[in-house]
Task: structure prediction
Amino acid sequence: MAEEEKTTPETEGEKPTEVPQAPADALSRTPEELEEEAAQAAAENPETKPDEPVKKDSAVRRLFRRLNIYFLIFLLLLIVAIVVVVVNYLNSQKVTPEPSIATQKLSEDALKQLANTDASVGNTSQTLTIQGNAVIAGQTLMRGNLNIAGNLQTGGSIQGPNLTISGTSNLGTAQINSLQVAQNVAIQGTTTLRDLNVAGPSSFSGTLTASQITVNKLILSGNAELQIPNHLAFTGASPSRTAGNALGNGGSVSINGSDTSGTININTGNGPAAGCFTQVTFNQKFTATPRVIVSPIGSAAGQTQYYVTRTATGFSLCTNNAAPANQSFAFDFFVMG
Result:
């Protein structure tokens, strides 16, 4: 008993060594949390012996501690992008296999059977190849496009709402109700047109033969010549006229022609005097004062000292002396702008 009650004598002035006690929730904490707590306690207790070794974290543990969730997500996205790039590159290197079209031969018995019945041959993915000639007695309906690798020869007419020809076409006889040409057109042979309306400039290097040509303005450029082997007629409405004082009492005047050319018929009355027979007004005035040429018709017209006065809107036929009384004569006129 005495030996059990003996205690080890403590050195004078030295405190007994305290055995660290583990916290109650040590099992529920991670080693990292326990180490941090121990380090914090050592910092708060200044009586810790300086020669006591301090535990240091390993380099691997410090590296994992610095890693965070955002860096891990970045690494995951980078790996996924690399995988996508590699897969696309491998797919681009693959050679696309050419589609194979299944073929099937038709015997003579099968063709005879098709001639007497309504049947569907194959599907849209198959091709029907006829090596010999084919005669179709009835109508043929093409629901899709019709591609012709060779020449197209027809014994009758071709009717359709639209006909588009991208290459060169040779047409023996073509009847077109309405033809619109967006670009240049070259016609080498004889062309017969019923109606031709040209909105823009046109150039004809050869002979142009037409029964009637209607133009707003005809311009001959350079040293061009206008040759008219037949008669030249100027049509249009007759201009208006006003009787003058040179006709005398009971005299009258009339005009037969157009603004360009015509005849002024004069019937004098009693006591004609010097002055103007008539004043002619054009239906359409000229842009400038035109040239008026007058020729007397008959001996009575030749006895007058006639002259004209002209403006852009008309002209007057006058005389310096009195015309013969109760006479009928005329004057022809020609007007050029």
